[in-house]
């Protein structure tokens, strides 16, 4: 490719790049809130580290969720779906009526809208995931009953 072609391509890219209406935002580590997962929605020790809330352009929130060994969510669903990316440890996820499945670092779990499920750590290992939760009509989760010890321990 000669210099004239490179210059033409660069000019075309610049001409088609839209002007940005907003500026990039940086949220420094340590500047966001963390809280214990409420007992109404979790069993065991769970810490939620908020990453970002939904906004007018992106109706998705993000959080790191850390489950101590044996900790788990209650049954719940998401009106607009959720993606989990396991970042450390070993955990389980289960859709209502389906088999409990092991999840490990690097696994990505997509839960479609309205699918009843739970997720958490195994009894012997902690587990952390990044949760990317979509919002519909101002709602991102519908909490249901707790996962019983029998359901959690079932094969």
Automatic annotation (TrEMBL):
Residue ranges of every copy of the Cupin type-2 domain listed in the record: 64-122
Keyword Signal: yes
Signal peptide positions (record): 1-21
SUPFAM superfamilies xref list: RmlC-like cupins (SSF51182)
Keyword terms, alphabetized: Signal
Keyword Signal among record annotations: yes
Domain of life: Bacteria
PANTHER family: BLL4564 PROTEIN, RIBD C-TERMINAL DOMAIN CONTAINING PROTEIN
Protein name per UniProt: Cupin domain-containing protein
Source organism (scientific name): Marinibaculum pumilum
């Amino acid at each position: 490719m000669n210099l004239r072609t490179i210059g033409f391509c660069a000019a075309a890219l610049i001409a088609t790049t839209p002007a940005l209406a907003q500026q990039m935002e940086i949220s420094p580590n340590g500047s966001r809130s963390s809280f214990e997962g409420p007992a109404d929605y979790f069993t065991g020790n769970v810490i939620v580290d908020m990453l970002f809330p939904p906004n007018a352009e992106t109706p998705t929130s993000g959080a790191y969720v850390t489950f101590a060994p044996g900790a788990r969510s209650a049954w719940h669903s998401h009106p607009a779906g959720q993606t989990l990316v396991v970042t450390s440890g070993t955990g389980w996820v289960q859709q209502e009526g389906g088999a409990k499945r092991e999840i490990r670092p690097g696994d990505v779990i997509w839960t479609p809208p309205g699918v009843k499920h739970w997720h958490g750590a195994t009894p012997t290992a902690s587990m952390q995931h990044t949760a990317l939760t979509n919002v519909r009509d101002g709602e991102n989760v519908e909490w249901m009953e707790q996962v019983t010890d029998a359901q959690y321990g079932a094969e």
